[in-house]
Amino acid sequence: MGHDALQVLPKDVKIGDPAIKSNPDWTAALQRAGGLYEQASDALRSHIAPGTTPVLLEAANTAVKGLHTLGDSIANASPANGNAFGIANAAAKEVGALCNRLAP
Question: Disulfide engineering: 2 pairs with which of 17, 33, 39, 96, CB 3.0-4.6 Å?
Fold first, then answer.
């Protein structure tokens, strides 16, 4: 969903490109995408079950923080968004793997 909001950007324009701030449509797209990643962070946080195993809890908290950081870096057109994406993606994969491994 957040990725879909970025489709308005031309392929040669990266999220940290200073030209984004001079185009209201591009700026709005980044704000929307960033907001969607932050909503995903909030949704994941609200679905962490009480009594979750410590390792899964830590992985889920890392994913929550990673998604929030990604949303913030996109919304603010930060050139560091690539690192934020890598962290959020790795944490989400870890949560999925742990859920599969720890499921009864």
Answer: 33
